[in-house]
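From the methods appendix. Each design record in this collection lists the tokenized structure first, followed by the designed amino acid sequence. Records were kept in a plain field format so they could be parsed without special tools. The example shown here is representative of the layout used throughout.

RECORD:
FOLD TOKENS (477 positions):
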């Protein structure tokens, strides 16, 4: 019997697992995919919003503001990158100026550092800002992270402190028995006193095993471009247009690794697995970003992708214990600003909703994860010393991002380690560069096979049935 079973290993599930791992509890996380952060948490704008935008008196407003103020210390503890780059919300006409003024007042009411700047002041900080822009709201505390890195690190620390993670494990039924729940999956059954539903776009489907859901969730698709590194950054700050009913708009976002994200659009779809990209949506993204930023080097696009946001009928986060089924906790309808809100959501669930459900006695010994080794941050002497300790740090597999064989082996062997080519890519970046794995992908697959001691035909790129090698030609091994 588990004390707590968490369904879903996105940012909410991972943060809650990490926080629960600080206590004397038996906790398990089950995830239907073969890795953590595979959906909305791994395909978003990577922004820790300051909290200026959500409507007053909503959970979004509360947790965005609280979460953004927690993030730097959380990232320092997890030993992952956090960069406070700042942002501008820009207005291009009179109607947008009125919206900008309202956002400014809202930010001031929430004690968020901010300032209204004219086009001349903005251009001093961002020379490529469009001449269409009249004014902008400067938000210096807005930050960026690598979202899947935060998820992986949080889950890794949870595992180090006793949390179990079961991947490729899909819920097929839930029964509420006397004082516990029976959770049936495609693999085995589990019993737990408490369920925390963090299933993203599927949160309503999960609850429907028990009862009619108190909310419905639709998938809202957002599509993005990724630009290659450049010698001179296109922008140093996040550039938001003024928001609309569809969301924060199409953004221009610098990333932790010095790429640029362009996007997203916003389109409600019926398919909760429909994360394909389309010409129409991507052309719309190109059109919109050119309204706010000049000189965008579209010839440097190296990748595009789509993510699905779980948009709920409540028009706000839905985070509470269920009225009909005690000890079933909903963490649902977590769309933007879900990434920014995640630490505060976890704190609220563990310390408020669950305050009377277990003894809040923290473990005497808590294990922190070790920072990953990044040779690109070392001096030449330090790097040479590292190679002498393990020669494969000198064997460069990914030329675009300068990733060594040993870094790939390390990414596979860590707690919550990579099991697919995409999993390696998200942990240490081979395949993230200009050639998008064109040169390194076969070698990455070989390293996975060698390290896991499996045949290369078993190595997946990403999802099930995405095998890198489907068989052997005559004369091969």
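DESIGN:
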């Amino acid at each position: 019997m588990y004390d707590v079973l968490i369904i879903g290993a996105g940012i909410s599930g991972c943060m809650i697992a990490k926080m629960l791992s600080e206590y004397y509890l038996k906790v398990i996380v089950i995830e239907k995919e073969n890795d953590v952060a595979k959906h909305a948490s791994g395909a978003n704008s990577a922004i820790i919003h300051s909290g200026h935008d959500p409507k007053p008196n909503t959970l979004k407003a509360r947790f965005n503001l609280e979460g953004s103020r927690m993030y730097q210390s959380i990232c320092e503890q997890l030993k992952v990158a956090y960069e406070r780059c700042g942002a501008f919300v820009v207005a291009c006409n009179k109607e947008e100026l009125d919206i900008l003024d309202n956002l400014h007042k809202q930010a001031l009411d929430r004690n968020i550092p901010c300032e209204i700047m004219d086009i001349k002041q903005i251009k001093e900080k961002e020379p490529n800002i469009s001449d269409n822009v009249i004014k902008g709201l400067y938000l210096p505390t807005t930050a960026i992270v690598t979202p899947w890195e935060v998820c992986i690190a949080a889950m890794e620390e949870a595992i180090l402190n006793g949390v179990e993670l079961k991947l490729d494990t899909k819920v097929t039924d839930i029964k509420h028995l006397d004082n516990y729940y029976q959770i049936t999956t495609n693999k085995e059954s589990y019993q737990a006193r408490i369920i925390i539903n963090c299933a993203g776009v599927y949160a309503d489907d999960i609850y429907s095993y028990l009862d009619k859901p108190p909310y419905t969730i639709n998938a809202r698709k957002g599509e993005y471009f990724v630009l290659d590194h450049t010698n001179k950054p296109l922008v140093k700050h996040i550039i938001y247009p003024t928001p609309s009913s569809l969301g924060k708009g199409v953004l221009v976002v610098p990333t932790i690794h010095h790429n640029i994200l362009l996007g997203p659009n916003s389109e409600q779809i019926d398919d909760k697995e429909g994360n394909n990209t389309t010409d129409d949506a991507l052309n719309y993204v190109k059109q919109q970003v050119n309204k706010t930023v000049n000189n965008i080097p579209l010839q440097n696009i190296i990748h595009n992708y789509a993510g699905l946001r779980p948009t709920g009928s409540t028009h706000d986060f839905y985070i509470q214990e269920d009225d009909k089924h005690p000890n079933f906790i909903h963490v649902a309808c977590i769309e933007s600003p879900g990434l920014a809100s995640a630490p505060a959501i976890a704190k609220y669930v563990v310390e408020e909703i669950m305050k009377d459900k277990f003894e809040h006695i923290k473990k005497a010994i808590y294990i922190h994860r070790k920072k990953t080794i990044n040779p690109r941050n070392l001096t030449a002497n330090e790097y040479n010393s590292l190679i002498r300790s393990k020669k494969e740090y000198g064997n460069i597999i990914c030329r675009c991002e300068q990733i060594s064989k040993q870094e790939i082996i390390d990414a596979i062997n860590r707690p919550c380690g990579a099991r697919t080519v995409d999993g390696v890519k998200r942990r240490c970046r081979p395949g993230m560069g200009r050639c998008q794995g064109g040169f390194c992908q076969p070698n990455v697959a070989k390293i996975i096979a060698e390290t896991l001691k499996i045949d290369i035909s078993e190595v997946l790129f990403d999802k099930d049935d995405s095998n890198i090698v489907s068989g052997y030609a005559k004369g091969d091994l």
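APPENDIX NOTE: The chain is about 30% helix and 20% strand.
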